[in-house]
Amino acid sequence: MTVRVGESASAPPFQKAALPLLDDSQRRKNVRHATEVIQRKRALVAGEMPDWQALRESASAIKQQTLLRLDEYLQQFEAACTAAGGHVHWARDAEEANRIVLDLVQQQRTGEVLKIKTMTSDETGLNHALEQAGIHPHETDLAELIVQLGKDRPSHIVVPALHKNRSQVREIFRERMHLPNLGDSPQDLTDAARSYLRERFLRVNTAIGGANFLIAETGSVCIVESEGNGRMCLTMPDTLILMAGIEKVIPTFRDLEVFLQLLPRSATGERMNPYNSIWTGVHPGDGPQNFHVVLLDNGRSPILADDEARQTLQCIRCGACLNSCPVYRQTGGHAYGSTYAGPIGAILTPQLQNMEHAQSLPYASSLCGACYEVCPVKINIPEVLIHLRGRVTRQQKDRFKAEAIGMKLVASVFRSRRRLETAHRLAQVGHLAACPFSFGVLRNMSSIRSVTANPPTTFKVARNSASPATISCEVPRAATTTISAPTTSTPWMGFVALISGVCSTGGILVISDQPTKMASRNENSSCRRLACTWTTPLSGGMRRTSVSALRRRGARR
Fold first, then answer.
1. Is the pTM of this model over 0.85?
2. Which of 69, 122, 179, 321 might form a disulfide with 339, Cβ 3.0–4.6 angstroms?
3. Mind listing the pLDDT tens digit for each residue in 427-436?
4. Residue 53 lies in a domain
5. What confidence score (pLDDT) does residue 427 get?
6. Beta-bridge partner residues of 225
């Protein structure tokens, strides 16, 4: 079986591929601007939905149920599609999928095909296979057309040419469409693309595309898009061939209600896609008379067996995780070396290849969780990333690898107070972290970061030797809250003073500067309790209390 995910098997590690891209300031500016615009639009239209979180929960539940019974729903889709006049083909891997499509195209005796934007064809390398057989594919999606004419690679799931600006697009169109006087306004560029594609829509009689959803109940295929090129490819050619991953199936037509609210808002910040096309089988005298669906596995079945990683297949390819990812926004999509970029690509690409390739991608993340917060089907991408990092570590198992040796050394130091204090003194003498002559990983870090030098002493020594400081703040009823504390703790103690003062009824709060009375940790609680002495004119005496008690007392008043 030949599992292929674009050119990821031969791509360099992410860390190496990202370095030259970080030096391309124009590319980084283009990516940052485009993702910020989409994020703002998404936040606006998602915020309008009072049941947004309920929709996310519903979509996640539908996908989870579908994946647990995926074999049943796929067979149901095949039966319904065949009954409607369509033909369903099963492809175990990329090579088999390309062979099926190529055979179907050659049966039509044509040297050209139209293409709707489809990531599965990029995954299998279909364009290359067609060109080798003497068949020219015409991309009809505007962004895919820009990428094709510019001999480039897609860099985003939804907006493949996101890394190009208008001036760069104009230069591509001028050269490849032979339009020397072309302007760079959006109207000029779209008019040029429309004229270029219209003639091909009218001439070519075979189209290839993908699918956003496969509906098991009716055997229908749903395609959503914003330009109308998909609608043209669905209705004008005589033969229509669609390639879709097996995870794209959903149980019922009614389930579309959920996904067609989530997908456009998450993908492009639109309330609804301008074109939502649902095609079922063959209808005499209306649209394609030869309708084929190729169901692609290509490494997806093994993912179903992994309880931790199965949620990866819930993805509906909205690209929201890319727009929110701080790593993607710096490097763009080409650093991932795969059809699928960004956080979803970091977990999908290596799994499709059974963790044999793209092992650097699970580390292409800060684990900030922004992707999980915006995912419309609630894929916990950080959780899967950590799971895959564990798999990579277990596969490598190199006892003499620099990372393994370093972690063992750090663990040994942390297990002993004496060794830790010795390490601190050595670091203080050498200032290794801030050394300009660092090597290896330290050199890479220091080249783009300013590393703070080690403190002159430990926190414990600084706390014991610091002189007391006094902070005052105004509180209700003209009361004054006074704190005596070590200087090193001033910001934190000032916050406590503000909270305690607001809760007071008048009087003075004195917090001891003795280390033993500074703070205590309750072993059965995650909160920090502060030992203090509270004096009020009403009580006429001293009593011990805590900040949490003062909060409760203030709340009652």
1. no
2. 122
3. 776 655 445 4
4. no
5. 75
6. 275
Longest dimension (CA), the chain: 101
Residues found in the chain: 557
Kindly give the pairing relationship between strand 213-215 and strand 112-115. Answer: unpaired
Residues 6+ apart with CB under 8 A from 507: 479, 534, 535, 536, 537
In this structure, are 140 and 265 located in the same domain?
yes
Q: pLDDT for 100-120, tens place per residue?
A: 999 999 999 999 999 999 999
Range of the domain at 178: 69-303
Q: Are 450 and 471 found together in one domain?
A: no
Q: Report the alpha-carbon distance of residue 323 to residue 38 in Å, rounded.
A: 7
When pLDDT is averaged across residues 335-355 and rounded to a whole number, the result is 95
Q: DSSP letter at 358?
A: -
Rounded to whole angstroms, how far apart are CA atoms 67 and 119?
Answer: 20
DSSP 8-state symbol, 276? E
Would you say residue 207 has pLDDT above 50? yes
User: 137 has which bridge partners?
Assistant: 113
Q: CA 197 to CA 69: how far, in whole Å?
A: 41
87 contacts 281 by C-beta, under 8 angstroms? no
445 and 471 share one domain: no
Closest CA to 128 of 173, 160, 163, 97: 97
| Same domain? 108 vs 165 | yes
Same domain for 182 and 259, yes or no, is yes
Query: Per-residue confidence at 282, pLDDT binned at 50, 70, 90?
Result: very high
What pLDDT is stored for residue 51 in this prediction? Answer: 96
| Cα 104 from Cα 113, distance rounded (Å) | 11
The structure tokens listed for 182 are: 């072309």
